[in-house]
Design brief:
Order of helices and strands: EEEEEEEEEE
Oligomer: single chain
Number of strands: 10
Number of helices: 0
């Protein structure tokens, strides 16, 4: 178990790709980089974390970021803290 939340970022168009970094410019953190904090999502190719859980995905008119907390080594924290992104039409 754990906490699971998600947030949709509305862009007004459906991107072909989205690249997301945390405020330190990283896409992964933690021991062995198990904690996913961003990445490159393509249409029909979401960013999947160590536990095979979606962290970042493209949706109609934007993209969705997720926060999953299952254990100290398998967190997806794209939906927490400050992040930067670039979206490609």
């Amino acid at each position: 178990g754990g906490s699971n939340t998600s947030k949709t970022i509305e862009l007004g168009f459906t991107p072909q790709a989205v690249l997301v970094f945390n405020e330190e410019g990283k896409t992964c953190t933690g021991f062995n980089y198990y904690d996913c904090t961003g990445g490159l999502a393509l249409k029909d190719k979401p960013v999947i974390g160590a536990s095979k859980i979606t962290a970042l995905e493209i949706v109609e008119n934007g993209f969705k970021v997720h926060n999953h907390s299952y254990s100290s080594n398998n967190d997806m924290t794209v939906n927490t803290g400050k992040h930067y992104f670039i979206a490609f039409k």
